[in-house]
Structures are given as C-alpha cells and as structure tokens.
Amino acid sequence: MKQKLLLCLILTFGLKLIYFVSSQIPFHNNNGALTNYFDFCVKYDGAWYQSIAEKGYPKVKEKKDLGYIGKNEVVQSAWAFFPGYPLLSAGLMKVTNLPYRWVALLLSIIFSFMAVWVLYDFCLLSLRSEQKAFWITLCFFLSPFSYYFSIFYTEAMFFSFMLLGFNALYRKNYVAFMFCLIPLVLLRPNGIVLLLPFYLFHLELSGLLKGYKLKMTQLFEKQNILQSLSFVPAVLLFGGYLYYQYYKTGYPFAFSIAQVGWYKASTFPLLSLFNRSDIGSQFNSVYAILTMAFAAYHYKKFSLSENVLIWLFILLPLSAGTTISMARYIAVIFPLFIVLYKNVDLFKNKWTLVFCLLALHLFSLYPWLINHPLAY
C-alpha cells in the first residue's frame, strides 16, 4: 500500500512541476519565477480569497452592496465566498507572520497531497484492491481540470475533508467524521447539502438502507440515534454562520444574494444550458450534458448515496442560471471518476492511457494560462 500510494504522490508531484514551468511562459510577467507561479495560482476566485484573508469581509450598508447588476454598474462582493479557506489562511498568517501567498502555497501543497491520499484510501476501503486504488487515483488527478486541486482555491481542501468524512464512516469513527463535517460547511455552500449523501451512506454501511429500501423500524434505535448526533455540530455551525451574516449584513443568506454580482439567478437547472452564446458557456453546457448522460447511464453502478451526491453536485450549480465553473464543480464528483477508471488496471496499455490523460489535462490547463473565460 505504501509503495503504491508513494508512487501516486510522486507522479502527481510531477504535475506540480509542470504547473510551475507552465507559469513561466510568455503570457505572464517577468517579475521572477516564483512571482509568476503565485500569479498563476491566485487568479479569479483566488484573488477574492486573498482579499478576505487580508481585509476581512466588507461592510454592507444596503442590499446592493452584496451584489448588483445594472445597466452601467456591476457590484461584486466578497460575501459570495464562504469563510473557511480565508479564515484558515488569515489564522496561519498571524501565527507564521508570512504573507498570504506563502500561506496559500503551504495550504495548497498540504491539501493537494492529502487529496491524493484520501482518494487512494477510499478506493482501497471500497474496492479492496491496491491496483485499482492506484490507477483510479492516478487517472483522477490526471483528468482534465484537476489542476484546480493545486491552485489557491478550495477544491483540494473541500475534497480532502469530504473523502475523510466518507473514510471515517467506513471505519465507523463518528468522532473523526464529526470533525470532518465542520470545515466542510464553512468551505463551500454545497458543504451543508453533503449531509444528505453522508447520512444515506451511513445508513447503507449500517445495513439500514439496502438499495432504495429503508428499514424504518430500526432507524430510531439507540445506536443509530447516537451515531446520527455526529451530524448535529455541522448543522449548528452552519446556522451560526447564517446568523453571523445576518448580524453583519442584515441578510442571513448574504452569500446567496451576492451571487447576483456574478449574473446568477435561481432557475430550473436545465434552462441554464446554452443560455449564453460565449464559448465558455457553450463548452460547459456540453460538458455538463455529457456528465449527466454518463451518470444516468451508469446509475445502477452507484449506491443511492452516490447517486444523490452526483446529482446534487450537478444540479445545484446549474440552478443558479449559468454554467460558469461547471467543469470545476464536476472535478470533485469522485464517484463518477471511480466508475470511469475502475477497470483501468485490466488494460494492457495502461501507460498509453496515462499519457493521453496528461495531454488532455494540459489542454484543459491552457485556458487558465492565457486567462481565457473557459477557465472561470
């Protein structure tokens, strides 16, 4: 196990070296190799996280300050972003006396490697095969758009705690599971909706849910109730964050209101597809449709908890009226990739597939390098 996992870590470290070299290409400034790499990692949402970590959330005098789109005015606010990542960054900045970019680099290294470890561990627990765990993990992090796990975004941290939660449930360690939930609800809005697939997964492992049949008579037994209490702190914490937003802005769902500044509005998920003519929206629409088709075709290969996770993570972003960032949101839906790569270990030309995936990975990286809207 240790050798296979170590090889995964070494090969994915090679990706980081590729990112570092790529950040030096002529599209970037000439202020030095490290500065170029920081600029590569901190773009788009990364700049918002840096602002929150360094300055905190801005004061809100009226609802318009949260997010607004007018004829000649666009207002975007940091309240659109959850506090987990910038809060941890700010804490480390105070403890280490390092600037934000160095702290963000440290977090990126820690959690991107942790993401590799927890996925390998999950595959080992669920498939009982070191070979499958190795190839699934390697192919997952070579897949297109997995570079989001190495930049100064929340993907690696969110993914790590999500898989740590599933692994803790596998081991029936409900105390560890409880502590995994706490950062999840503060990292991204869909952290709170994860509680549903988590609970279904718990019921499946406990034998209370088989397929789509729930044993209602055993649901209220003492042991299940005690285990279910591990979900409570996360719910209370999320409620506390809603109160904090209300206290600071007057709106408990300030993060949702702030999405207006990014041209997002609640809509039926499928109506978000192809509703804009730009190449980014068109590509993300096609990518979302292909993902949904794959999930629907293979639904029998997923447990109920996995199906719920998959469709929540696809449909919730689409319900915001746009396909922006769909490739990034799909990148963390690990059950899809496990099914996709489950039989790679049986291929004769496995390394040919690896090189093909690497080529696609680098192709997906190109828009990020040149600041193209496809990377949003």
Give a short synopsis of this structure:
The protein has 376 residues and is mostly helical.
Please give a structural write-up.
The structure is a single chain. The protein is mainly α. The chain has one domain (2-266). The chain is built from 19 helices and four strands. It has helices spanning 2-22, 33-41, 45-55, 84-96, 100-127, 130-142, 155-170, 174-187, 190-193, 195-206, 216-219, 222-228, 232-249, 254-257, 279-297, 304-318, 326-330, 334-341, 350-369; strands at residues 68-69, 74-75, 209-210, 213-214. Strands 1-2 form a two-stranded antiparallel ribbon. Helix 6 (130-142) crosses helix 18 (334-341). The mean pLDDT is 93.
β-sheet strand percentage: under 5%
Number of structural domains: 1
Percent of residues in helices comes to: 55-70%
The 3D shape can be described as globular
Compressed to H and E, one letter per element, the order equals HHHEEHHHHHHHEEHHHHHHHHH
Mean pLDDT: 93
Any key phrases for this structure?
2% strand; two-stranded antiparallel sheet; 64% helix; two-stranded antiparallel ribbon
